[in-house]
Specification:
The chain has helices spanning about 20-30, 45-55, 75-80, 100-105, 105-135, 155-175, 205-220, 230-240, 245-250; strands at about 10-15, 35-40, 60-65, 90, 135-140, 180-185, 225. By secondary structure, the protein is of the alpha/beta class. The protein has a single domain (about 10-250), classed as 3-Layer(aba) Sandwich (Rossmann fold). Helix 3 runs parallel beside helix 5 (about 105-135). The relative contact order is 0.14. The chain binds NADP nicotinamide-adenine-dinucleotide phosphate.
């Protein structure tokens, strides 16, 4: 169960090697979290991440999970909930893709859509049902400001996040009043391996800052958070900018 400050005792991260996911795990372990499931594609990195969390005092388990195999989600994720309550699920998997290549190779674009959108739809529904059966817990979904308005430079990734964001908004409404808290996280540019080598966007931030914002959002039971928070205002303005103007922006 969550404590009076909203800190979960048990955490499931979908995308167990995600830098943002692991920064969140470290932050929550420093508060109260004791059990962490890192669900991801089996790899040395996934095992090493679990080992690092164990060194911080958590009981951490690596669990095989592939977003691209939705037929397995019910069994793989549903089983975890039968082993004990899970107070928080963090949906942290995703791929950025390569916009230029993905425009040339439709199957590569479909891969981005399948990981970021359909994989997330399936995994979220399985977890949402289990959380609802528990009657408590939080589902925290890493969306992106890229989904708030499609940009020429990354509309394939952006559209997958727009779909995920809209889906999560609806899911939050569906779960309203059930005791399950759904929170959408919209970070801007975060310095992780996903963005390594790319030109930094204005207001770039860190996985640690996203983790801190997630912790605060949990405590406040926020529906949506932007990281950094100023992006909320920036995106409100950008969303309504006429397209001929938006198109000319160097974003
Ligand atoms: N970094 C940013 O600027 C930024 C901004 C806004 C939103 N976000 C979102 O935040 C989330 C975390 O990003 P991050 O920066 O922490 O990136 P990251 O460190 O690259 O993590 C991405 C995660 O997705 C996992 N993944 C990829 N394909 C998968 C699949 N088929 N099945 C299961 N897991 C899969 C990766 O696992 P493997 O180890 O197996 O590859 C990894 O754990 C993503 O959803 C991303 O879109 C990131």
């Amino acid at each position: 169960m969550k404590d009076a400050f909203g800190a979960p005792q048990s955490l499931l991260i979908l995308g167990g090697t995600s830098e943002i996911g692991l920064a969140t795990a470290r932050r929550l372990i420093a508060r109260r979290t004791r059990t962490v499931y890192l669900a991801g594609r089996p790899s040395e990195a996934l095992d090493a991440a679990a080992e690092q969390l164990r060194a911080l005092g958590a009981e951490a388990h690596a669990v095989p999970f592939d977003a691209l195999d939705p037929a397995s989600h019910e069994e793989v994720l549903g089983k975890l909930f039968t082993e004990g309550d899970i107070d928080m699920v963090l949906l942290a998997f995703g791929v950025l893709g390569d916009q230029a290549r993905d425009e040339r190779e439709p199957l590569a674009a479909v891969h981005v859509a399948q990981v970021n959108y359909t994989g997330a739809v399936s995994a979220s529904l399985v977890c949402a049902t289990a959380l609802q059966q528990q009657g408590h817990g939080a589902l925290v979904v890493l969306s992106s400001v890229a989904g708030e308005r499609a940009r020429r430079a990354n509309f394939i990734y952006g559209s997958s996040k727009a779909g995920l964001d809209a889906f999560t908004q609806g899911l939050a409404d569906a779960l309203h009043g059930t005791g399950v808290h759904v929170m959408i996280v919209r970070p801007g540019f975060v310095r992780t391996r996903m963005t390594a080598g790319l030109d930094e966007a204005p207001l770039a931030t860190t996985p640690g800052a996203v983790a801190a914002a997630i912790e605060l959002g949990l405590r406040r039971r926020s529906a949506t958070i932007w990281v950094p928070g100023t992006l909320r205002l920036v995106m409100a303005a950008l969303r309504h900018l006429p397209r001929p103007l938006f198109r000319r922006l160097p974003v």
